[in-house]
Amino acid sequence: MEKRVTFKGWLLPICLLLPQVIVTAVFFFYPAGQAVWQSLFIPDPFGLKSQFVGLGNFEFLLGDPYYRAAFTTTAVFSILVTVASLGMALFLAVLADRLIKGSGVYRTLLIWPYAVAPAVAGVLWLFMFNTRVGVVSWYLGILGYDWNHVLNEAEAMGLVVAASSWGRVSYNFLFFLAGLQAIPKSVIEAAAIDGARFWTRFRTIVFPLLSPTTFFLLVVNIVYAFFETFGVIHTITSGGPQQATTILVYKVFADGFVGQDLGSSAAQSVILLVVVGLLTVIQFKFIERRVHY
Amino acid sequence: MATVKLSNLKKSFGKTDVIHGVDIDISDGEFIVIVGPSGCGKSTLLRMVAGLETVTSGEVQINGAGVNEMEPMDRNIAMVFQNYALYPHMKVFDNMAYGLKIAKTPKAEIAERVQSAAKLLQLEEYLMRKPRELSGGQRQRVAMGRAIVRKPDVFLFDEPLSNLDAKLRVQMRLEIKQLQRSLGVTSLYVTHDQVEAMTLADRMIVMNGGIADQIGAPLEVYANPQTEFVAGFIGSPATNFLPAALVSGAPAGTTVGVRPEHATLTTPDHGLVEGQVSYSEALGSETLVHLRLSSDAAFTVRQNGMEPAPEEGHACGVLWNSSDQMHFGADGRRIATP
Predict the structure, then answer these.
(1) CATH node for B4-232
(2) Chain A residue closest to B82 (CA)?
(3) pLDDT reading at A227 higher than 60
(4) pLDDT value at position B202?
(5) Nearest beta carbon to residue B81 from set A186, A196, A209
(6) Does A196 sit within 8 Å of B98, measured CB to CB?
(7) A8 within a domain of the structure (yes/no)
(8) Vertex B63 angle, CA B59 and B65, to 5°
(9) In this structure, CATH architecture of domain B238-335
(10) A10 assigned to some structural domain
(11) C-alpha span between A105 and A116 (Å, rounded)
(12) Does the interface predicted TM-score (ipTM) exceed 0.85?
């Protein structure tokens, strides 16, 4: 039975709710409303006054080849980040789950990268792959590979994907490990007696039973790739070379705060909000139904 | 159809020895129940036969061939787990067909075998349901069905009834017994419930702290327990134990065992021991009279429920036939009554 708490009067419940409501209003509703409002204007070059243009900003954006390119970049980037971080995390979690001795040590070590802020992670990777002083690019040079993510678009994309996925692996690993440990051991043993070897068991029993976890992580990671990777991209490539790593959220920043086109930037935020909203709805509508058993 | 042989089977986890050498020769179609209190190693023993635990020393043989190094899947066994271990994301049909699909059995044959097992277990209506849509007893049947369809050499049961309620347990117990009879598959069954052990077993292994205290037919074990532990564990209510000093004529230094059903109440000063009634439990068909003996030891007498039970605080004597009196040495082993 659900236990309901009943309050006498209104004052206490309102006081209890107020902090959360204020935080949400100040940091989410107000800026979101501002973005929607601003997206309807074009400010003059000095930012002194702005002119109402209706949906002009959106019209311009949808016809802008650079903006459409940013869409493709974002799709490629977020798919790569999600697949890489989920795949790696699942692989590590399966290995850690089989450990009996020392699993605590592995777990602790694998969780550490999550504590590193995206911008710091970006700088770490940048140092390793720096074209002049980077240790990894130096070794790659010895092997005869000329690493230069400043000029090579594919290498730049690879580097930001690696740096963004790295910290994420820890987070996903935790959830996957918990998911794996929640599968009753006897179910795995029953499958082993039924003749399923490791890979068959993973494919037919473990992975399907993990699917609620995987689905949850899919949603969370896509949202992460869309928004929170800003710091990594800003520190490593600043969206370059030639906008090869300019994802939508980076373009919001670049156009708004570097290019000073606040109207277009606001319109981009609104589009981004709608895209992520749609993605989440699609995921819940079509994938969630299949993952719960 | 298969024979199973365990030779001096031992198991240690690190430095802890949990099974100290078990020997048994199981003939084809025999129903063996491994019974004991929790922590006695009975499940570990079963899991060694299944191949889910490695064997520290000794040997498991199925059909005369050593299987110590074989994977569970290569031993041609089927196991029913305490929590059923059904695959929660698969329908009942797929749960039962899983092993056959992996063995690449033709589809038509899979369907036929699952159907006939479902018919046997009255599961036909539920084949398209998921395990969570079934009751405990039905899940139990699915777990058995999954074992049956593979036509294994040996059935292994790991406390399969302990998650069911009392009434269902009695019913499923009967069904398991009938099923095993009709299929004639050699079975090993682990339980902590002595009633299950008594009713199901052709022979039972009574385990105590990793040692097989006694192996034998249920009635033989009941009538002739070889150790103090077996005498106390098999039979309900448990056997009364008294120091030899309290019972005249008992060999010095031994423990005397008397089953509650072999003792009768008599008038004070006419019994072999004397005591006061502390309380009685009337169960209908029988009444358990609990006594506090003059030596402060506890003693239980089982009498017919229709006989009048003595009141609390009533003084009385207790009598039994000397042929029903058992003697156990300091090591717990039975000493032949002189």
Answers:
(1) 3.40.50.300
(2) A186
(3) yes
(4) 94
(5) A186
(6) yes
(7) no
(8) 45
(9) Beta Barrel (2.40)
(10) no
(11) 18
(12) no
For B39-48, the pLDDT digits (tens) are 888 999 999 9
Whether B151 and B182 have beta carbons less than 8 Å apart is answered as no
**Range list of β-strands (E), chain A:** 41-43, 50-52
Rounded Cα–Cα distance for residues A154 and A156 (Å): 5
Q: Cα dihedral sign for A236, A240, A241, A246?
A: positive
Instruction: Locate CATH 3.40.50.300 in chain B.
Output: 4-232
Chain B residue with minimum CA distance to A292 = B89
Distance CA A124, CA A116 (A): 10
Write down the mean pLDDT value for chain B: 90
Model-wide pTM > 0.95: no
At a CB cut-off of 8 Å and minimum separation 6, what does A285 contact? none
Retrieve residue A138's tokens. Answer: 């130096």
d(CA B288, CA B265): 11
Range of the domain at A177: 58-291
**Overall domain count for chain A:** 1
Q: CATH code at A218?
A: 1.10.3720.10
Domain presence at residue A176: yes
DSSP state of A1: -
Of the listed ranges A110-124, A161-175, B11-25, the one predicted with least confidence: A110-124
- Rounded CA-CA distance B146/A190 in Å is 10
Q: List chain A residues with CB under 8 Å of B72.
A: 189, 192-193
Evaluate whether A222 touches A164 at the Cβ level (below 8 Å).
no
A280 belongs to a structural domain: yes
Note whether A190 contacts B89, CB cutoff 8 Å.
no
